[in-house]
Design goal:
It is built from five helices and eight strands. Strands 5-4-7-8-1-2-3-6 form an eight-stranded antiparallel beta sheet. It is an alpha+beta fold and 232 residues long. It has three domains: 45 residues, no CATH class; 59 residues; 108 residues, Sandwich (Immunoglobulin-like), CATH 2.60.40.
Length: 232
């Protein structure tokens, strides 16, 4: 599966895929089994934030039923003064042990899955950027940043069109450095809304924030122009 589909799957699960792009993705989802599996896994990871499945003990009803079988077997054996109850008791104990092991295995799998999901979610950062422009107070952006893969998606809405000799530039705030790391430049056309994949100029660890500035055409290595969107 290519990286573009993986990014679309992440955006789809997060509700950031819209319009014709979302419709096209859903059509592909109906015929692409591998893509469905990926979306299901991402859904499960997102759900893990609010639902962490704890390990489950053997259900009381099942435990009582098995123990009842053992006790009934013992009473019959006592009345007949024989050991015919022994196979039943052994079978019941084995059933109890197997049921307990199944429950423990299910609990262990749930715990492992929860840990894997937390690891997955730990590497994904989602930030909302708000406008610093008096002329466009409703301008905003959402950043989906994957630190492990060192790439992300920027979705910009209602940002004013930039002049031909200017570019918007994304910045990532890495606490290790004094100056933000450049994340790439982009141009806003008439729609004022677009989605831009990006990769920082150098590795970013523990990003503390994101910003968009208006710079000269082609971008700069250090922010010079005004900050138009900011968030963390």
């Amino acid at each position: 599966m290519n990286e573009e589909l993986e990014e679309q799957a992440s955006l789809y699960v997060l509700g950031l895929l819209e319009g014709t792009e979302a419709a096209a993705f859903e059509r592909r989802l109906q015929t692409d089994g591998e893509l469905r599996v990926l979306v299901d896994e991402l859904d499960a990871a997102a759900a893990a934030i609010s639902h962490q499945a704890p390990s489950r003990a053997l259900p009381p009803v099942l435990r009582a039923r098995v123990l009842d079988r053992v006790s009934r077997g013992k009473r019959v054996a006592f009345l007949r003064r024989s050991t015919t109850w022994l196979p039943w008791a052994i079978a019941a104990c084995l059933a109890l042990a197997c049921s307990y092991l199944v429950a423990e295995r299910a609990g262990l799998r749930s715990r492992v899955m929860a840990l894997e999901q937390r690891d997955f979610l730990a590497q994904i950062r989602i930030a909302s950027l708000s406008s610093k422009l008096k002329s466009a107070p409703d301008a905003n952006a959402v950043v989906v940043w994957d630190e492990k893969k060192q790439r992300g998606i920027l979705k910009v809405t209602q940002l004013p069109r930039n002049d031909a000799d200017r570019d918007y530039q994304l910045w990532l705030v890495d606490p290790r450095f004094k100056n933000p790391i450049a994340g790439g430049v982009f141009h806003v056309g008439n729609k004022g809304s677009l989605r831009v994949p990006f990769q920082p100029a150098s590795p970013v660890l523990g990003a503390k924030g994101f910003a968009i500035s208006l710079e000269r055409k082609g971008g700069v290595t250090k922010a010079e122009g005004p900050i138009v969107l900011l968030g963390k």
